[in-house]
Design brief:
The structure is a single chain. By secondary structure, the protein is of the alpha/beta class. The chain is about 50% helix and about 10% strand. It has two domains: about 65-350, TIM Barrel; about 365-445. It binds iron/sulfur cluster (SF4).
């Protein structure tokens, strides 16, 4: 059984706030970077202010211990909005007759990637609606191969519909880094209601997507629940149960846990969020994911506004998208096309503005892609991260990639980039690594590119 719904429901029956002493024991355990049990998480879900502050603070410390100050930046590249499913909450659903439909040609997808490359992005998340006659496996493979061949984008991750093992094997060979499939809601009855027709109707096939990905050779996996469809406490427990299942069955923790919260979408049938999640609850969720699965990239997208995205950096978020467009062709067109988008974004800042802001807040903007390409994936990555040994790599690689950005693409953020690079070098504990990074920065200034640890 991938997740035990009865066990999760039973854990949620208790909504008593745990004592300070119990919370302290759980947080001490989290600081050892070994993760938390479902029982631990269930107790943290019941913690209210002011004790919540201790959870948020500890999550910030755990993030610092695992990844240091680096915040990874990326953009989604939407390939198609021609979906055969009818998810009530989504602008791409098949019965949304208002939507302006589009599947990018391979050439158009490459142009989108080139547009993003020119802005300084190095990692992209391809997003494809489910459609066997449009955005099928052959199409996705052609896009992946063309972007790698014709651009300097360094890693492509993929968020797509669940697939059979044979298709996933082809994606792995083509060089997809992280494979993401979000369950949307782990609550079966809500899932059935939200997905009334189409291939996505099958809860179990979606839930087993990660198992098939592992069979196909993927070891960097991305999971997540769309917050707002059902009780967030259930979704958080179920997401962590899914993570723990992957670890117990395959020895692999998820590489990322995304934290999408329901947003308005043109043509959505949900006019109101069924189970609203407040900003305070959202921060707690980010923090709990960080504590429970300390080595996962906790990902917060531009669904959230700039102020909240600033705050989640302090409580465990480690990856953020920036400058996102959620409609196919959105980067080249460079406008807001709400009627073609999957959902409305709330942070409209450019990558340059986000980089400047992240640096000013004392974090280290990073465009690094090195682990995927240096073979630090799956359990190897987890072992390095949980022993505190990845963060020096993150620091050095963040400095190297930010230097490239500063020279090649920075606008107003240039000064902030240079200051952040200096500051980050000072943080690298390993003297040999620091000297190496300093020497590599000079090589980048002299024109070399794509140097990494
Ligand atoms: S060194 Fe690895 S974990 Fe750190 S930012 Fe780069 S790719 Fe990510």
């Amino acid at each position: 059984m991938i997740i035990d719904i009865n066990r999760i429901s039973a854990l949620l029956l208790n909504n008593e706030q745990p004592s300070n002493a119990i919370v302290e024991i759980i947080l001490d355990k989290a600081l050892k970077l070994k993760g938390l049990t479902l029982e631990d998480v269930a107790m943290l879900l019941n913690v209210r202010a002011p004790l919540r502050e201790a959870i948020l603070k500890t999550a910030g410390e755990v993030k610092q211990a695992v990844f240091g100050r680096r915040i990874v930046l990326f953009a989604p590249l939407y390939l198609s909005n021609e979906c055969v499913n009818n998810c009530l909450y989504c602008g791409f659903r098949i019965e949304n007759r208002e939507a302006a439909r589009k599947t990018l040609s391979v050439e158009e997808a490459v142009r989108e990637a080139k547009t993003l490359e020119a802005k300084g992005y190095k990692r992209l998340l391809l997003v494809a609606a489910e459609n066997p006659s449009k955005s099928n496996i052959d199409y996705i493979l052609k896009v992946v191969e063309a972007i790698y061949r014709e651009t300097d984008i360094r890693i492509l991750h993929l968020n797509a519909a669940p697939m059979p093992v044979d298709d996933l094997k082809r994606l792995k060979v083509a060089g997809i880094g992280v494979l993401q499939v979000f369950q949307e809601t782990y609550h079966p009855e809500t899932y059935a209601m939200m997905h009334p027709s189409g291939r996505k109707k099958d809860y179990s096939y979606r839930l087993s997507a990660m198992d098939r990905a592992i069979d196909a050779g993927f070891d960097d996996l991305g999971i997540g629940a769309l917050l707002g469809l059902y009780d967030w406490r259930f979704e958080v427990l179920a997401t962590i149960a899914h993570a723990r299942y992957l670890k117990e069955r395959y020895g692999i923790w998820p590489h990322t846990i995304s934290v999408p919260r329901l947003r308005p979408a043109s043509g959505s049938l949900l006019k109101e969020t069924p189970y609203p999640v407040s900003d305070e609850e959202f921060k707690l969720i980010v923090a709990i994911y960080r504590l429970a699965v300390p080595t996962a990239g906790v990902v917060v997208s531009t669904r959230e506004g700039a102020d909240l995205r600033r705050e989640v950096l302090a409580v465990g978020a480690s990856q953020i998208s920036a400058g996102s467009k959620t409609e196919p062709g959105g980067y080249e067109a460079d406008g807001e096309h709400y009627e073609a988008a999957q959902f409305a974004t709330d942070d409209h800042r450019t990558l340059d503005e986000v980089i400047e802001d992240v640096a000013a807040l004392g974090y280290m903007p990073s465009l690094c892609t090195s682990c995927y390409r240096a073979g630090r994936t799956g359990s190897d990555f987890h072992d390095m991260a949980s022993s505190g040994n990845i963060k020096d790599y993150c620091s050095a690689n963040a400095a190297l990639t930010l230097k490239e950005y500063s020279i090649d693409a920075a606008g107003d953020s240039k000064e902030a980039c240079e200051e952040a690079i200096e500051r980050e070098l000072g943080e690298i504990a390993d003297e040999k690594l620091k000297a190496g990074a300093t020497e590599r920065l000079l090589r980048i200034e002299a024109g070399e590119r794509d140097i990494y640890y």
